[in-house]
Design goal:
This protein has 2 helices and 11 strands. The chain is of the alpha+beta class.
């Protein structure tokens, strides 16, 4: 593996990390296996809560967004964060570029269907749900694991937040956009 990361802060954000396998193939070209190497990456943004990395190799070109959104207890920070992410991502998705978003969104799934979210695995929304939904909708990013037809098995897949006082809720997502 090789590791791309952003720095932590003194206020408790540990930074964002992207680990990429050097041995797993991403595809084939003319019968030859293609693997990613560090030279196939370019870090565009490295902030404590956001990492944007361009991956461009012989067979693919896409943007990876690794994010760790603020919790709803700091709504002013959350509003600014989601607006900033939207402004950074829209220029890529508006051109139809392939984007992979790996999100610790700290936001529950919305209870309604739209382009970005299905109703599979939803719970009561949190204060940050609308911020996340607006950002992803404007960016034309959708989260496949929130649509039943894209999930294998009987239980909603994904990462869930567990609390002693409540049922598990989804706050982490994989989003995709582009061709």
């Amino acid at each position: 593996f090789f590791h791309i990361h952003s720095k932590a802060t003194d206020t408790g954000s540990y930074g964002c990390s992207l680990w990429i396998s050097k041995t797993r193939p991403v595809g084939k070209l003319n019968g030859n296996t293609v693997r990613l190497c560090e030279g196939d990456t370019c870090t565009l943004v490295a902030e404590p809560r956001l990492l944007l990395v361009r991956i461009a190799c012989k067979i693919t070109n896409f943007l990876v967004v690794v994010m760790h959104a603020p919790h709803q207890v700091t709504m002013d920070e959350a509003v600014k964060y989601w607006n900033d992410v939207e402004q950074l991502i829209v220029p890529y998705t508006s051109k139809g570029e392939n984007v992979l978003m790996l999100m610790d969104a700290n936001a529950k799934s919305p209870q309604w269907c739209d382009f970005s979210f299905g109703q599979y695995g939803y719970t009561e929304q949190s204060g940050t749900t609308l911020l996340m939904q607006k950002c992803l909708s404007v960016c034309k990013v959708w989260c496949p694991a929130t649509f039943r037809q894209y999930v294998k098995g009987d239980e909603p897949d994904g990462t869930f937040f567990w609390s002693i006082d409540s049922d598990p809720v989804r706050i982490d997502y994989v989003g995709i956009a582009g061709g």
